[in-house]
Design a protein that fits this description.
mainly alpha; 58% helix; 4% strand
Length: 319
């Protein structure tokens, strides 16, 4: 079909009726692009006819606004003949190009953050919590107060050295392992009250458990302000271990340097403690029974937790 035949078809009443029906049934954006394609094609044929009757003072296209579409597509009737193109092919190409542009634009309007997310992958990544935010979660999950947490820090530093990340992580892991042990939770509950053996503060401060609790090494860390303590690798280790509750080993006890190393494992050489007494399956408390309760009037008022009949099994085991 040549250009003249196509224009004649467009002027045919039956074809116009079909086009009107098409406009009514198709989505707005698809209809718009089709109409635009038709306008481009008709404008192209009109401009090409006019160009034959004019001088070539300005080249193949006259420098006027009426030729914007022909300049955009950079073609004329001669080009169409040379490349064996017909008007239907031009319409299809124009339609597909227009549809792609409108689809992309619609997507940007409906999803204004999509392009942003593509350019910046960080928008898809979960935000990393600060240590202060992690500490707040730790205090809530472990049912301890800020004061108890400060005692916990100083005891771990006294046992593992505040400058050593790995060893402070190992010491903290030992305390979390004891929270899983029937023997250690039962012993702590005898000192502090039934079911309180699951509280890490009670496990830490129970009699004859950690020699670093309030010894000379413990009070040594009182010489530094809080900002300095929180800058130490050992502090980061405590935060990481308590926040994730992922332990680095399954030992329940350790001895300091200078002890008899027989039957013990030094996890961090040459400065680390010697670990022993692994948690056995028969001594392990099921996770569903590891229920933490606050210790001390301040903590009890803060977390407002009371014992219920649902915990009778745990109470019987730890009282």
């Amino acid at each position: 079909m040549n250009i003249k035949e196509y224009i004649a078809k467009i002027n045919d009443k039956e074809t116009l009726k079909e086009l009107f029906k098409f406009l009514q049934t198709k989505k707005f954006e698809r209809t718009l692009t089709f109409v635009l394609a038709c306008i481009v094609a008709i404008n192209l044929s009109t401009n090409n006819k006019q160009s034959k009757n004019r001088s070539h003072e300005y080249g193949p296209f006259e420098q006027s606004s009426s030729h914007d579409y022909t300049e955009l597509y950079d073609t004329n009737e001669e080009t169409i003949k040379q490349e064996n193109l017909n008007i239907d092919e031009i319409i299809i190409a124009s339609y597909n190009t227009s549809q792609s542009i409108i689809t992309n634009h619609t997507d940007e309007v409906l999803n204004p953050t999509s392009s942003l997310a593509t350019e910046n992958n960080e928008t898809k990544e979960p935000k990393e919590l600060t240590n202060a935010e992690k500490k707040a979660i730790i205090l809530t999950n472990q049912k301890i107060t800020e004061t108890q947490f400060q005692e916990f820090i100083r005891t771990v530093f006294a046992e593992g050295g505040g400058s050593y990340y790995d060893e402070c992580y190992n010491v903290t892991s030992t305390i979390l392992n004891r929270k899983k042990s029937i023997a250690f939770t039962t012993d702590a509950s005898k000192s502090f009250g039934k079911n309180l053996g699951f509280n890490i503060y009670c496990l830490l401060t129970a009699p004859h458990q950690f020699s670093g609790y309030k010894d000379a090494n413990y009070y040594y860390w009182d010489n530094f302000d809080q900002e300095y303590l929180e800058s130490l690798p050992g502090y980061q280790a405590i935060i990481d271990c308590l926040y994730t509750e992922q332990t680095s080993h399954d030992y329940l006890s350790f001895k300091g340097i200078g002890c008899n190393p027989e039957g013990k494992v030094q996890l961090c050489t040459p400065y680390g403690n010697y670990y022993h007494n692994q948690l056995k399956e028969e001594d392990t408390i099921p996770l569903t029974e590891q229920i933490t309760y606050p210790y001390g009037e301040e903590a009890e008022n803060l977390y407002n937790t009371s014992l219920t009949e649902d915990n009778e099994k745990v109470l019987t085991r730890t009282k």
